[in-house]
Amino acid sequence: MITLRQFISKAIERSLRKSDREYLATFDEYCFYTSISDMPLHYFGDFEFLQFHAYLQTFKPLTAIYNCMTAVRRLMTSEHNEGFEFKIHPRYFSCPPKPSPSHFEPLDEEKLEKLESYLKREIETIYQRETTCKEALRDGQPIQETGETFKKTHINKSPPSFWKWQKTLNDCVYQIYLENPKFPNDASEEQFKDGGEYAVIRRVDYDLLDTPYKLIFKRLGVQRLKNSVPFLADASDLNFIDIFGLIYPRIFEVYIITWAICLETGWSQDMVERINYNDYLYCPIPIDSDFAFIKTTKQKGVNGNNDIKEAKQFIHPSSKTNPFSAYNLIRLFVERSSRLRTGRNYDNLVIEINTEPFFIYYNESSGTPILARHPDRVAMKTTNTRKRFMESQLGFCFDVRQLRPTCLYLREKNQNLPLLLQVALFGHSSSAITDEFYKDSAPFQQVRKDKLAIELKGIQESIDDGSFKGTLAPLKQKKKIKDKIITIFTDHSGESPLAVCKDNRSPDWPGFELELGTNGVCRRFNKCLLCSRSIVFSDNIPFVVDRYLYLDQQKRKLRANAFESVFMDEYLAAKEVIDSWPYPEDIEEAEERTILNDFLLPPIISESF
Fold it and tell me: Going by DSSP bridges, is the β-strand pair 471-472/534-536 parallel, antiparallel, or unpaired?
């Protein structure tokens, strides 16, 4: 008799994916928590699986619950086929519906404007840091003082005051960089612990301050005290980590450059992190061109129960002259990080990741002095740090994955790129993927409406002869024609089938005063297209086409003067609606319905309809 404990143990042993083993471990915790680990496997069915769902709801978000339950059900199904029999086949176990992903929604206008201005400001600051560092390394002078300089002895009876001692920023940066590669490139974690060479010195002890580096570190640490003056006469607001950040990039620079590249290219964060800083150009840059083609790779899993991945290459054009372009940001960070790309700590990162990482930075926290941001690096979770940084700098948090649809939104709105080019740059196999997952949100619909309004205005100006007085509302609907007809006969019963009336007490079609008087309610539905109070929606199109085909038939039957006097104005208005409608498939479908099933409307359309 096989128990749940034995099933979990065997499934973990067979699982190739780390994520599957983690999901099974969660299921094992549930079994232990509910004391069912020794339950015979053939007693476990759909009801027990629903109880697992209830357990997960107490501490996991919707997406995590969905991922865990579908993975466990998939593994149960696989083991069931290998002879582990459950109460019913696991494929019938109920799982929650897949949550709608929020990261396909672009940032709203307010957040996007704030993010763009912030990125521009911070990128300018990064450029300035690099310029300041280069000037300091070029013009700075070594600092000779140590703790002995300020220690009172029988020889040095009047030493200078440590609390009033000052230096320039250039000299300070130059002296700190003299520690390289010993620090931080070759520094070990032990050297930062108490008693280590780079440990924090708790008090001002001149015997312990035996190197210029230690002296600078301590002097900057006490410069805010009441009896002290700022250490740097020309940069009094900087502390030690600020000065260190002039020489080496910090995690916040990695965030800023990642977001800026994602926003321009539409690449995901892992793709930006996989940029090969030694080979990031797709082809040599033409001398007479302002654009360079940058490239990266996307690791995608292949079908099958394995960990095999394939690399897909992505390219993107980027400006050479714009300092905020992705091309120049890659060059900037390569330059910023060049001083960290030697020594033991960097070599260890390369061995761990099995490639040279693009993003490396100085680690301000305890542990290894140099860290890397790369998808293949183990234990690289800095979510809380990133969220705190977003809140403090932007005032809001966002999912970095949102920058991908935001990039597409900006292209759609501002650059007017052809659809096929957008699909190619995003690496999709067809435009259907781009439309379904990225262009079905409210911001994209609004862009389409704005563009459509411009196009319709141009069409109307080119073909307008004044016949159609109403308004078109061409909202695309995924409805069959029979559903549109049913909508008119049910939801709009007693109303005009040709258009929606905004105010039937104040019509303005030609001759309404003589026929209705001044206070009459208009029920002359065949006059709707001649009235500015009418709006034609998608549901009305089958009836407009039906009416047009009937009038076109009458035009061929009646004498010209008879047709003109009775039907010409209505005929021209219906024709203008059909010519102006932006979706020809709607017109063709309606024409086919009329030809096959005869006319929908009577010759005279009124309230009796």
Answer: parallel
Reported as a single tens digit per residue, the pLDDT across 87-103 is 999 989 999 888 766 55
Is residue 551 packed enough to be buried (19+ CB in 10 Å), middle (13-18) or exposed (0-12)?
Answer: buried
Triad 345, 346, 349: Cα angle to 5°: 90
Assess contact for 361 and 253: CB atoms under 8 A.
yes
Read off the pLDDT of residues 192-226 as tens digits, 9 standing for 90 and up: 888 888 888 888 999 999 999 999 999 999 999 98
Q: Report the mean per-residue pLDDT for the chain.
A: 84
Unique residue bearing structure tokens 């052809």: 418
232 CB neighbour count, 10 Å cutoff? 23
The residues, ordered by sequence, that sit 6+ positions from 144 with a Cβ below 8 Å of its Cβ are 212
CB–CB of 169/201 below 8 Å?
no
Query: Which structure tokens are listed for 140?
Result: 């700075």
Q: CB count, 10 Å around CB of 225?
A: 9
Q: pLDDT per residue over 277-308, tens digit each?
A: 999 998 876 767 788 889 999 877 544 444 55
The pTM score is 0.64
CA dihedral 144, 150, 152, 156 (to 10 degrees): 40
Which stretches within 508-581 are classed as H helix? 512-516, 541-557, 560-566, 568-580
Of residues 439 and 357, more confidence is placed in 357
Q: Is 479 helix (H, G, I), strand (E, B) or coil?
A: coil
Query: Helix-strand-coil percent breakdown of the chain, rounded to 5?
Result: 50, 5, 40
Region 394-422: what's the mean pLDDT? 78
Please tell me the distance from the alpha carbon of residue 162 to that of residue 147, in angstroms, as a whole number: 9
> Contact 545/437 with Cβ under 8 angstroms?
no
Helical ranges in 222-353 per DSSP H: 240-247, 251-265, 269-273, 326-337, 344-353
- On the question of pLDDT at 275 being above 70, the answer is yes
Give the up-direction half-sphere exposure of residue 14: CA atoms within 13 A in the CB hemisphere.
Answer: 12
Give the Cβ contact number of residue 53 at 10 Å.
17
Cα→Cα distances 422→19, 434, 495, Å:
33, 8, 43
Q: Cα separation of 264 and 326, whole Å?
A: 7
User: Which backbone phi and psi does 50 adopt, to 5 degrees?
Assistant: -65, -35
CA angle (144 as vertex; 139, 150 as ends), nearest 5 = 135
Q: How many helices (H) and strands (E) does the chain have?
A: 23, 7
Structure tokens at 19: 């994520």
